[in-house]
Amino acid sequence: MVTAVARRTPRTVMVTAALGALVFAGALGGAALTRTVAAPSTSTSPVPTTTPGPGADGCLREPCRVLGAATLGDTRIELVADSGGMTGRLRIGGPGASRVIEIADIGRIEETGALQCYPASISACLVRARGPQGLTGKVVVGRSDKWSPLERAYLSTADFLTLTNVVADSGPEVVAAQCAPEGCSGGVHAQVFTLAGVSVGCTREYTTARELPGYPSVDIGAARLRPCD
Questions:
Q1: Residues 222, 12: contact at Cβ < 8 Å?
Q2: Res. 18: pLDDT tops 60
Q3: Is residue 135 part of a domain?
Q4: CA angle at residue 116 from 169 to 151, to 5 degrees?
Q5: CB < 8 Å & 24+ apart, contacts of 179-188
Q6: Is there a domain that residue 1 lies in?
Q7: Is 204 a member of any domain?
Q8: What's the structural domain count of the chain?
Q9: Is residue 120 part of a domain?
Q10: What is the per-residue pLDDT for 34?
């Protein structure tokens, strides 16, 4: 189930101080993360490739396809999807990985651009899918070869969802573009969440998501944020 988008007052100062401890402890229990100032890495396998049959290292239904891959330090991460794209798995360590994390219940996984990973003190990977309400995503976080999925799913009603550095802490934030209450024709703003699921704030309205500063690698900065309506 995709979590509805919450609107809250910015809490940047409190979140920055507490996020490091909260995130990793929460990630191990299924709920949090942190961030750094490294440039995000994006999917390096735009063309799906076929992998061996299903199983713990593949997907639920053949043919299994690798929809994206990234390398964080010495760790290879691959996103494998089943034939319908409704269930995916992150193989931490690449083929033959001992850690496989299932990604499900967020819609049909995107054919291209499904995987984005961000290297940091506590790294994160975002898996994007197409759901009935818009672009949805689930985040998996890792530190010292220990990876765990976060419980929350993120929603963008304006078709743009990414990981990037916004506030000064030790991990990325989730940036989700949202349509104005009357619809995207009334404008689009970016809503920023910590990976613990706390809304940090929103930008002003832009005509489209493509007008967000630095798009598509958006460079928002905490100074651009204000309370969400």
A1: yes
A2: no
A3: yes
A4: 70
A5: 180/205, 181/229, 184/157, 184/158, 184/208, 188/158, 188/212
A6: no
A7: yes
A8: 1
A9: yes
A10: 27
